[in-house]
Amino acid sequence: MKDLVRKPGSRTPSPSPQITLPEPSAIDVPTLSSSQDPSRRPIISPQAPVLVTSSEGAPPKIYEGATIVSNTANQAEISESNVCMITQRTSSTEPGNILGLKAKDGFKTAWHGLKMILGQVEGLLGGTPFKMPVTAVNMLIQLGDAIGDNHESLKELMIGIQKQVEIIGEALVSNDTADTASRKMKENFVRLLVEDLFELHKLENNGLWRDILEYEQVKTEIQRILKNVDKNCENFKFQIMLRIERNTADIFESLVQNQFRDWPHSQKALYNADLEDETKFPRGPCTPDTRVSILEKIYQWAQDATPELPHVFWLTGQAGSGKSTIAYTVAQHFDQEVNVNNPSCSLQATFFCSRQFNETKLQRFIIPTIVYQLAHNSVSFAHSLRKRNEFDSVDISSKQMKDLLAIPWQKSVAKHATNLPPYLIVIDALDEIEGGKGSAFLKELLTTINDHCLSGLKFLVTSRPDPEIVHLCKQFTSNAVCHLHDIPQENVQEDIYKYLNASLSKLQNDSELVNLAKKADGLFIYASTAVKYISHPKGSSLMEQQKKLKKLLESSFTMKKQFSHIDEIYCQILYEAFIDFDNDDLNARLRILHTFLCAEERISSTLAAALVNSKDIDQANNVVEKLYAVLFVKNHLAKIIKSSKYKSKALNIIKDLQDAVNFTEYFSAGKATLSTPHLYISALATWAGNELLTKWKSQFRFLPLIEGYKTSWPILNTYSMVTSVAFSLDGMQIVSGSFDNSVQVWNALTGEQVQKLQGHNHLVTSVAFSPDGTQIVSGSYDNSVRVWNALTGKQVQKLENHNHWVTSVAFSPDGTQIVSGSYDKSVQVWNVLNGQQVQEFQGHTDSVTSVAFSPDGSAIISGSYDNSVRVWNVLTDKQVQELQGHTAQVESVAFSLDGTQIVSGSYDKSVRVWDALTGQQIQELQGHTDPVTSVAFSPNGTQIVSGSFDNFVRVWDTLTSKQVQELQGHTDSVTSVAFSSDGTQIVSGSSDNSIRVWDALTGKQVQKLQYYPNLVFSINMFQIESESDDDSVQMWDALTGKQVHRSQGHTFPVTSVAFSPNRTQIVSASNDNSVRVWDALTGKQVQKLQGHNHWVSSVVFSPDGTQIVSGSSDNSIRVWDALTGKQVQKLQGHIFQVASIAFSPDGTQIVSGSYDDSVQVWDVLTGKQVQDLQGHTYPVASVAFSLDGTQIVSGSYDKSVRVWNTLTGKQVQELQGHTGPVTSVAFSPDGTQIVSGSYDKSVRVWDALTGKQVENLQGHNHWVSSVVFSPDGTQIVSGSSDHSVRVWDALTITQVQELQGHTDPVTSVAFSSDGTQIVSGSYDNSVRVWDALIGKQVQKLQVDTFQ
Which of 935, 1010, 1013, 937 is nearest to 969 (CA)? Predict the structure, then answer.
């Protein structure tokens, strides 16, 4: 090759390095002839890889198998003016013609763009064979010259590359920018290009191109390299075109300042909107490596530009199945400004519909928001939109899609650069659009696409399988539809497990997460709620999270089959939030919760408190905090609404609360039927009231019941739902089973409660009287059947053999046997006298729900979840009949009194009557609109009564099959019905917590029996002080039984009281978060100590009376100056509520027990934690110092009693023996013994030195709640849930007295200071004083609650 002429004035060329290559092994390199330029002959020098550096800051490039040698004769500087001359001199075709492109136009334009790019990042070429941009261009020119017309496939590639480069050059000339992103984009492209060009350079060094191209292997290698160059050019062109298309800064700013100034677009509808402060469920992507097949299917559809493919992809699934998370992931995937590896789709707009916000639930916001985003992302669309100038259509919903989207888009397509990828628009949750308008929106979109051919736009839409949307999408091809419910269950379960494992880092790889994933039942909303429940509070320990996980897996709220597991987790969270409150406090908090739920839009805690006429905002905040996993509210007050129309409505509820506008509009418009039935959407239809509200409330019957009164806010009673009821044979009594684990007996005439039978430790499902009325049988979810003495309330038998919940029990006609049905699919028969199992019938393939004896006792019938009714012969143990006909689970069965017929009720909403002999169906009674839960024949067989989830009790004529009565009154599901023995009355139990008695002839309600639990009272020495749910502290004279003072001031229930050492003052703690000090003589309030932000659970005076210490559910302990009321110390260290506190005898230390399982000791003076006594594995319920202050004793729900050295903090003893939670502990006066009471019904005495159990005092037949030594240590007194107070001789370990009189569980006991009297407090609202010597009741102090 001849030397090139230098342009005058150019610098002298510097030596240029040459990459010399080793002898290629894969390619047969031609040998050069002597006539060929010797300077082109390769210098073979195989060496180790060479590191070639580029510009400063750029990464080095390693070139394999080459070393750099100096060869100045081989290179010369080429200036821009020499390009055409070089082309002409090296071309073997027509002068100025490279592959058919004219030098004056095509060629020069084509390669100018490449040279310009290389020039802009010339620094990257340093250390490569292409020190000057034109050097690289020259090599391509020479290759193109050699290809000519002789190599067709390579020619096509070169032409393609030249065309790509020409477009790139033109684009850069007209739209080039110098910003950082553009430079980075160019640098990435040049790095890739240089790598490819270097591959060509290695081949070029082996000879002239025209000679090299004669070898097929070389030609194939060149073809591979050129294809890679073409691909990189195509990607770079795409990036440039996309940047040009997205360069909307100027025009978009103009639109924002003018046409978009008042544009109704929604920022919250963007997929990545920051909603962290406004929702408990912020949006986010799928956990990595989950939903893989679903996402891949959507990605393929989005990237496929085939015109025949539908423009719309429909993703559908039930609520909570993860549609929104998938939509978010797709949006995030394509939301890349430059995506080199995936240039075939680009996210343009998103709209995530949601009922949470006004701007995300109204259809009128969707198109304006999409158009706003399109104008921001597409300069051609923005220009077309402005030119079209139909912005007024934004206020007319019917014109929005055509005028603002379809026509401007059509106009903009002509201005698009060629080969731009499809534009993706994601619209999530169509079913969340208010008024059910999601299907109408989709229909309009499909029509618009069909009429206007929105070429280049693709829409991903998600929704539940709404029938109208299903109809619209039924013609979609399979590659444009994804039904989440069709995904294999095992795949979904695996994905949920991965999500749980990633979200609960402390529980990673815990085997129980697999079981939790199974329990999610395919619902990601379950998993998400579980994560929030388990991981709260932030920073919770591994053990705390394991406990919560165990609670979910062993939930006592496992429902019947029509309920999903999501119901269980909500019930668990609700239960934990409200279980610790007495009735009034519970109702107050539930009024607040109800207010949150009834608001169509979220309201603030301040407003919720005001709407229930409460000044305690902290209480409203506490409700929100307790329901952290499922409820979110507004964090601030809304802006003042100026509309006089709405303002007047707001003022009708409460003045100056503008947030109430949405609340009142909700009720006046009656739009709550559109609400999503999850607690995290605060528009639940749970308000009880007028006819309109009652109508739509029926849509939400499975939600907790709200029972309302005309003169008060509604009350929510969720924890004592009635599950079963039955009359005694004489009709004088009614027995009921309840969700509160109790069996209750009522006077059928007066409605008064006669007995409360306690022993079951799970909800009671079924109850029945024996034929003679002397016994009661009950079945429970604790897997047991229990027999009770109906007169005394004592438990007679506990029948245990079922390995799952007992669902139904019944006596045989002669009262000698009991039949029980269970979830373990068995029917079992028991001997009442000895409690032994007599028979077991197996045959049902699913849970047994109902059992009954025939009137002659020869047969048993059973109903089951397997949809069948079966008849069994008691004598032969054989199945006699299988009655088939119900299309859903059978919930209740009963014989007619003559035994000729059987009635059954089912979840298929029907009541069916069968011939007991032949098994043929005689009648089908239709009328209930929801599952039938209970059925019974009247004694004369002429009528049938049925109860249902539709809240109605219906009476049917067995002869005509017609409905005779519809008994209305229950406000929630009817769970049990029965006739009285004379057929004149009907009794019904309901999930509304009530039992109602009806006149069978007239249908009128005769009685309404309702039970509300009472509060616990605490006692103190000569004078007795009681804490009550009427928010008062009452003081009694222990001798006369007269009330001395009644101090009022707390606004919520009082939880703890104590006398000062000199007995002149009383301190009280309350759920109103305050501590109050009272003058014991006048009853006036002296101090109100405020600081706790949650209820205060325990208070006590210091031994010298100068200080008060309080423990609270806000996890803190506070020390107060008793004289000034000022807070002296705030002791923080517990991470759960403080349950028990005590001062040391010298007043220098405080000991506390907590639900965080720890016992902590504190220095009163400094407020520092002195000891953290760890060892208990469950909540600590009771703590106490020894009299000398050297030891601490603690009792816990882990069933242990532990003794600690206060100096070292070491555990001295662990007293094991109790088989249930330890509820109370105390030292003997001399410190040598410890007494403890437990749920295992025992009182145990321990040697404090050795830890050995000295005695086990047995006698109580229910939980022991309180124990204490007498002042001289010779006696022990204990109180129990069996209603008794017992006195024991501490020396002989014999029971001295059994003090009977309380009609409900005894909660607290104490000796007087001289040991002659005993005082006890009970759930029966009374405080009783007893003579300790003879066991006689001296006083009964009845607390009169004020209204």
Answer: 1010
pLDDT above 90 for 295:
yes
355-358 LR contacts (CB < 8 Å, sep 24+): 355/432, 355/434, 355/674, 355/675, 355/676, 355/681, 355/683, 356/278, 356/279, 356/602, 356/681, 357/266, 357/268, 357/278, 357/601, 358/601
Q: Which amino acid is at 778?
A: S
Asked if the bond preceding 537 is cis, omega within 30° of 0, the reply is yes
> Half-sphere exposure of 585 toward its Cβ, with a 13 Å CA cutoff?
27
Distance of CA 33 to the CA centre of its chain: 80
Residue 261 has pLDDT above 70, yes or no: yes
Q: How far apart are CA 842 and CA 847, in angstroms?
A: 11
Res. 1340 pLDDT band, cuts 50 70 90:
low
From first CA to last CA, the distance across the chain in angstroms is 113
pLDDT of 728-770, one tens digit each? 887 788 888 887 788 988 877 777 778 888 889 888 889 999 9
Task: State the pLDDT confidence band at 264, using cuts at 50, 70 and 90.
Answer: confident
Strand duo 733-738 + 742-747: pairing: antiparallel
CA proximity to 715, closest of 612, 645, 812: 612
Question: In which element (H, E) is residue 222 found?
Answer: helix 216-245
Q: Please tell me what DSSP assigns to residue 730.
A: T
Burial, 716: exposed, middle or buried (Cβ in 10 Å; 0-12, 13-18, 19+)? Answer: buried
Predicted pLDDT of residue 84: 29
- In 3D space, the residue among 949, 452, 884, 374 whose CA is nearest the CA of residue 700 turns out to be 949
The Cα–Cα gap between 203 and 217 comes to: 11
- The values of phi and psi at residue 378, to 5°, are -130, 110
Closest to 1268 measured CA to CA, from 1252, 1255, 1257, 1279: 1279
Q: Which is it for strands 481-483 and 312-316: parallel, antiparallel or unpaired? A: parallel
User: By the 8 A CB rule, do 491 and 443 touch?
Assistant: no
Neighbours of 1224 (CB within 10 A): 23
CB of 954 closer than 8 Å to CB of 967: yes
Q: Which residue has the higher pLDDT, 4 or 304?
A: 304
What is the three-state SS of 1017-1071?
CCCCCCEEEEECCCCEEEEEECCCCCEEEEEECCCCCEEEEEECCCCCEEEEEEC
Contacts for 480 with CB less than 8 Å, ≥ 6 apart: 301, 309, 310, 312, 313, 314
Rg (CA), the chain: 42
Q: Angle between the 366-377 and 379-388 helix axes, to the nearest 10 degrees?
A: 120
Segment 1067-1119, tens digit of pLDDT: 777 767 888 887 756 657 788 888 888 878 777 888 888 999 998 888 899 99
The Cα–Cα gap between 130 and 122 comes to: 9
Cα gap 404→427, rounded to integer Å: 17
Tell me how many degrees the CA angle 656-661-667 measures, rounded to the nearest 5: 130
Residues sharing a CB contact under 8 Å with residue 901, sequence separation 6 or more, in sequence order:
895, 913, 914, 915, 916, 922, 937, 941, 958
SS3 state at 51: strand
pTM above 0.85, yes or no: no
Q: Please, what is the average pLDDT of the chain?
A: 75
Closest listed residue to residue 1065, CA positions, set 1047, 1048, 1077, 1074:
1077
pLDDT digit string (tens) for 129-155?
665 566 677 777 778 777 876 777 788
Partnered with residue 1237 across adjacent β-strands are: 1224, 1243
Q: How far is CA 300 from the centre of its chain?
A: 32
What is the C-alpha to C-alpha distance for residues 745 and 764, in angstroms, rounded to an integer? 13
Among the listed residues 458, 365, 363, the one whose alpha carbon sits nearest the alpha carbon of residue 409: 458
